[in-house]
Amino acid sequence: MRGLPSVVTSRDNPHFKRLKKLADSARARRQSRTTLLDGAHLIEACLQAGGELHTLVSSAHAPRFLAEPFAAAAPRARRLVLSEDLFALLSPLATPSGVLAEAAWLSPPRPGGPALVVLLEGIQDPGNLGSILRSAAAAGASAAVLDPGCADPWSPKALRGGQGAQFFLPVEESADAGAWLAGKALQSVALSLDADTSLYELDLTRPTALLFGNEGAGLTEALRLATSAQARIPMPGRVESLNVAAAAAAALFEAVRQRRAR
Question: Torsion angle of alpha carbons 94, 96, 97, 99, nearest 10°?
Fold first, then answer.
């Protein structure tokens, strides 16, 4: 077995500087079409989806066995060992996992069956965005379409929120939501607290796009009026609204329920 490289302790190391840009900059991630995966679960998800690791990064204080399975699965990946301080600068976690990887984005194929799309407008919290993508992937959605106001789905926080869903769910970024809808033969459903119709009254077995808006402002009026239906999620309790990620999960799995019953 090959020995590990020397421990990198300088912030001026070119490999560290490049990885730090990936950790901090959506532009750098877009230009290289790569991202940083923090922790074994995300790295495993990438590899299971057929993804490619470019660099495998270990903390000098982490047990060697953490990275070895990934090194065996990606023998062409560059190996890098960072001092604990440098590793912490790359990790979004208060307690770093000890293993990171630089990985290429994937564009997974769309699943068959009636389309089920989540169309997102202005979802700014990367944790919310990742959670929505995770629910969409779990529900077997066809795609997630994000307008330019959404957070970066390949950011470390969105990846952790999605638990690697980005490697299994087709994600279309920076889409003009109105133009995208206009060009598709889909039932489009805007989730709104003010709607008269319950989501449970709609036929979600049809090809459908479910629309969710900004955490505070919701969908813009123009996009809401461009949809073919508006619906609310019934809430008999004494709270006035759901978190957008919880609302997306409820709507997606109502579609799953209807389609399995059909």
Answer: 150
C-alpha span between 47 and 15 (Å, rounded): 22
Which domains are seen in the chain, by residue range?
7-104 (3.30.1330.30), 116-261 (3.40.1280.10)
64: tokens are: 């060697």
Per cent of the chain over pLDDT 90 is 73
d(CA 126, CA 123): 8
- 68: closest CA among 18, 22, 35, 77? 77
Give the sign of the dihedral formed by CA 149, CA 155, CA 157, CA 160.
positive
Q: How far apart are CA 190 and CA 185, in angstroms?
A: 16
**Each residue's pLDDT tens digit, 5-64:** 778 999 999 999 999 999 999 999 999 999 999 999 999 999 999 999 999 999 988 887
CA 178 to mean position of chain CA atoms: 22
- CA 125/CA 166 separation, integer angstroms: 16
Enumerate the H helices of 25-166 as residue ranges.
26-32, 40-48, 68-73, 84-90, 126-138, 156-162
> Is 188 in contact with 225 (CB distance < 8 Å)?
no
Cβ(191)–Cβ(233) below 8 Å: yes
What is the pTM for the complete model shown? Answer: 0.90
Cβ-Cβ contacts under 8 Å for 5 (sequence gap 6 or more): 79, 80, 81
